[in-house]
Every structure is written in structure tokens, then in C-alpha cells.
Amino acid sequence: MRIVFKTDYVQDIRPWKDRYQLGLYLALLALAVAAPWLLDAFYLGELTNVLIWAVAGLGLMVLTGHTGQASLGHAAFLACGCYANIILLEAGLPFLLAFPLAGLVTGVVGALIAIPALRLHGIYLAIFTLALSILTDDIIVLSEPWTGGVSGKYAPPINLFGVMVDRWGTPAPFYWLTLAVVVLVTLGYINLLRAPLGRSFIAVRDSEVSAQAMGVDIARTKAVSFGLSCMVTGWAGALMGLFAGAFNNETFSVVISIQLLMMIVIGGLGSIHGAFLGAIVIGFLPQFLSIAKEWLAPLTGGGSVAIPGLEFGVFGMILIAFLLFEPMGLYGRWLKIRTWFELFPFYRKDMFKRQKTYLRTERLK
Fold first, then answer.
1. Could you list the residue ranges that cross the membrane (predicted)?
2. Cα distances (Å, whole numbers) of residue 326 to 26, 302, 323, 341, 358
């Protein structure tokens, strides 16, 4: 059993609990950097896809997990970042300039959209963002001179320090590019939660009335959260477009928004680890189902037949199981297991019991 003794108040806001935890993260990072030498091209592509979903999950986690604002329209911001990045690249801008600008443009669009959405709460905000995601499909079709309409666009290879980076031609450099974006976004997220702005996000999530009583500007905090969430999601959309190679108005459908929300719920709302765990589930689930069908085909005497909707059906059953038996997600389950080992034999079963009552200030919402 390992016990960490806190001797300084600064330890509560450090990015790492102790040197042991930092060593584990560095070892994981070293393993991720070495992945192109350990995996073949197929599984390296799958790992790249997981990292892209993790960036998108981190973007939604800012808004939903740490600010408490439900969103079913983040596919619209994935599309905004994707198209903005390609349009800027076609205009002749280098990737190191086009990629950050794509995220900034998406963040500004998200902040502007947040202005009328600030009056909405709960299910009404979710319906608003869902309608926005549906509307984006028509906007892409009507903006054919810039977006290519139904025909879509093709992602060109990017030149990065004299190296041509292409998802199909050079999978290893593209993987390292995605990994670098993931590391930078994660470090920025960690420092955001340590800053007063991140604390304001959590205060608004827990109780808007209490946060306002403590001096938090609710409208400004929500707008900033929406903008930051959309900016990170825009970067994920830019990587997703480069990863796909070709895309159109049907690529970023409302199903992506729902899938993204389910991903962070399964991973664990309100935790950075939850975004990565959920991305692993959503990234490797299709391949797991494909392998399982091939393995079960000889045992059942049938062929490997494609079953429409199997992936979303299994994903939905997984979500229902977590909502019923583990609302804290995969990361919440890991916290319970770790705490059990750390506190044994003094662990109490009701330590993580959910609060079933509302604050008096929240009952009328």
C-alpha cells in the first residue's frame, strides 16, 4: 500500500500527485512515442484514430464534464474545424499557421453561438445544440463554393519542416503529429483546471447560484467555456479531416455528436482520464466486434455477415450498463478499486455514494 502525505497546500494543485505518478505518465508517453516501431500500419492507424477521438473528448469534457453544460451539437464544431483547416491550407497558408487558426476560428464561432445559448439550461441547451448540429448539414451544402457541397473536399498532404505528412503515405509522422497535439492539449487542460478560470467552471457546474454568490460571472464563464471547448473540438475536427482524407456534409452527422457525448460518459465525466478511456472504447470497439464475429463464425456454423447497427447497439448497451451500475464511468470504477487497495481494510462501501438530493437553490431549475 502506497500513502502520499501532504505537507504543503501547493500539493493540491500540482499537475502530478507525486514523482511516482509523473514517472508513470512519462513511461506511458515514451511507449506512445515508440508505437510506430511496435505496431504495424493498421493498428498504428487505429491508435491514431483513438488519439483524435481523445482530443474531441477533451473538448467536450471542458463544456459538459467541468462546466455542466450538456451539448449534442459538437459535430458541428468538428466540421467547422475540419473545413476551416482545409480552406486555409488551400489558400496557401502553411500547416503550422492554418491548424491553430482553424481552432481559433471554431472557438470564436462557438463563443458567438454561446451568447444566445446562455439563457438555456439542461435539456433546452441540449436541444439547441442538437438543432445546430442538424442545421450544419444544410449550411455545408449551401456553402458549396467553399465547402464543396455534397461532393466534399479532399485533404492534401501537409508539409511539416520539409517532411510530407500524409495519413496513408506516411502513417508514422502523422501519428507523431497527432500525439504532439494530444500532449499539448492535455497539458493545457491540466493547467486550465489549476487556474481560477477552471475553478470557476467547476463552481458553475456544481451550483450556478452559489458560484454567483462567490463572485463568479456566470455569463462570461459559460461563454469562455463554450469557446475553449469549441476551439479544442475544432482542432480534433481538423485532424479528423486529415485522417479521413475525404469528407463531405454527411461525415459530421448528428450521430457523431451523440457518440461523442456517450464516449465521455462511459469514460467518466469530469476527468481528463475519462476522455482517453472513452476514446479507447469508441476507437477499438468496431475492430473488437469485427474480430469477435470472425471468431464466432466457425463456432456457430455461419458466415461473417455484416449486421446493420451492431456497433451502435453494442455501444448503447454498454452506455446503459454504465448508467445503471457505474455512473462514474471507467475512471470512476478505477478510482474505487485504487481507493479500496489504499484504504484496506478501512474502505467503506458508501464512500462514493451519489447524492440524491438537490441544493435548495437548484430545485426550481
1. 20-38, 44-63, 70-89, 95-115, 122-142, 174-192, 223-246, 312-331
2. 29, 35, 6, 19, 20
* Cα separation, 206 vs 52, whole angstroms: 29
Number of domain units in the chain: 1
Ranking 31-45, 122-136, 224-238, 289-303 by mean pLDDT, the lowest is 289-303
pTM strictly above 0.90:
no
Q: What is the dihedral of CA 15, 335, 70, 358, to 10 degrees?
A: -110
Query: What pLDDT, on a 0 to 100 scale, did the predictor assign at position 195?
Result: 87
Question: Does residue 12 lie within any of the structural domains?
Answer: no
| Grid coordinates given for 164 | 510530407
Q: Which domain holds residue 56?
A: 18-362
pLDDT tens, position by position, 199-208: 899 988 888 8
CA dist., res. 22 & res. 30, Å (int) = 12
Query: b/e for 139-150, b at 16 or more Cβ within 10 A?
Result: ebeeeeeebbee
Lowest-confidence range among 158-172, 232-246, 294-308, 312-326?
294-308
In a domain, 1, yes or no: no
Would 11 be classed as within a structural domain? no
Grid coordinates in use for 268?
467518466
Domain membership of residue 225 (yes or no) is: yes
120-129, 190-199, 231-240: segment of lowest average pLDDT: 120-129
CA angle 347–351–352, rounded 5-degree value: 130
CATH code, 284: 1.10.3470
* Residue 240 exposed, middle or buried by CB count within 10 Å (0-12, 13-18, 19+): buried
